[in-house]
Amino acid sequence: MRRREFITLLCSVGAWPLAASAQQKPVIGFLNSGSPDAYPDRVIAFHQGLRQLGYIEGENVVVDYRWALGEYDRLPAFAAELVKRRVSVLVATGGEPAALAAKSATSTIPIVFAIGGDPIKLGLVAAYNRPGGNATGANILAAEMDGKRLALLHEMMPNVARVGLLLDPNFPAYATQLNELQQAAAIINLQAEILRAGTDGEIEAAFEIASQKHVEALILAASPFFDTRRDKLVALAASHVCRLSTIFANLLRQAAW
């Protein structure tokens, strides 16, 4: 299947007749690494895109949702459930974990993903212009943006010398993110304290370490796990010691599309 056909599946579900009966409604499998609260804008935009082309959930199309709530190990089972249901297309959102789980679950059902890393390096596609296989999607360059956020922090707070870099070690793009952030810190001559958190307890511990290491500001790398813990992270940053100045990868709660 060609790339253009995949995009048609995502945007218009164009191969499905509007006049389908209740028994024949096509089903979209919607697989996300995070939670509905973490990505309300994406869900609203998804529904708006379908509606603009005449497809309304519950009327002429069914959307079967699976939310991992930042617990990536749940995704393979969720993907398998959607494949077993024989969905017409799998929409894998919320970063690399959902896309990889969908790809591992089926080699025949079309998959459309949205990730922040390189889909070629991850083995999701063969090439950008000719994805091959059954998957295609969008790369939003989140890893590269982590370095840009660090540069932005330095521009806004030029007197800060020690910065904490908080990453999710369970996130597939972790190594790329770490490399991008370390390179960016070296370029602008910042002392970088690497902090890792893949559980709620580790988030609290990371802030304690940041305090002990006299971190002056904090960068949170992109991660669906962090997205599902926004309130916790914001509260910790706001209350911790001198109120850590923090740049988040994704903080929006309200629809902005």
CATH superfamily of the largest domain, please? Response regulator
Mean pLDDT: 84
Measure the end-to-end span: 29 Å
- Per the CATH scheme, the topology name of the largest domain is Rossmann fold
How much strand content do the residues show? 15-25%
CATH classification class of the largest domain = Alpha Beta
Query: Which regions contain 5 or more consecutive residues with pLDDT less than 50?
Result: 5-9, 11-22, 252-257
Shape descriptor:
elongated
Examine the secondary-structure arrangement and name the CATH architecture of the largest domain. 3-Layer(aba) Sandwich
* Portion of residues within helices: 25-40%
Most strands sheet: 5 strands, parallel
Question: Which oligomerization state do the chains in this entry correspond to?
Answer: single chain
What radius of gyration results from the CA coordinates? Answer: 20 Å
